[in-house]
Amino acid sequence: MSKDANVIGRMLAWWRNRRGLSQYDFVTKLHLLGCINMTRDILANIENMRCVANCKQIEFFAEALDIREQDLFPKRRHFVGKAADVNLRIFTRRRGQRPPAKK
After folding, report:
1. Distance in angstroms (rounded) separating the CA atoms of residues 11 and 93
2. Does residue 98 have a pLDDT over 70?
3. Which helix (H) or strand (E) holds 33?
4. How far is it, in rounded angstroms, from Cα 83 to Cα 86?
5. CATH number of the domain within which 50 lies
6. Rounded to an integer, what distance in angstroms lies between the CA atom of residue 84 and that of residue 10?
7. Does pTM surpass 0.70?
């Protein structure tokens, strides 16, 4: 069974700060947009990556910040080597073989 992960927490805090909103102001804005069960404590837990946000919350976050939902997700994913410009080791069954050097 896979474990849920929070990948938007830090970006959410960054966008909120960029818009000049406190956590209380942001929660108020979310409540004015629609019926979302959000408190400052829940928002703080999402931003500090202690709990995950569901799809509906992500939609409300993007609407309240006037951004696309995709903007809440990190651009450079640390778990994909090519996206983070990490030289991935090529795994083979043959011992002693090294991957070709980058030019």
Report:
1. 40
2. no
3. helix 23-33
4. 8
5. 1.10.260.40
6. 17
7. no
CA distance 78 to 44: 23
CA distances from 21 to 6, 79, 88, 90 (A): 21, 31, 40, 46
- In the chain, the number of structural domains is 1
Which 3 state secondary structure label does DSSP give 56? helix
Q: Are 51 and 3 in contact (CB under 8 A)?
A: no
- In the DSSP assignment, the letter for residue 22 is -
CB atoms under 10 Å from CB of 45, counted, come to 16
Residue 58's domain comprises: 9-72
State the pLDDT at residue 95. 55
Q: How confident is the model at residue 34 (pLDDT cuts 50, 70, 90)?
A: confident
How far is 53 from 84, CA to CA, in rounded Å?
24
Distance CA(47)–CA(42), nearest Å, equals 9
- 36 found inside a domain: yes
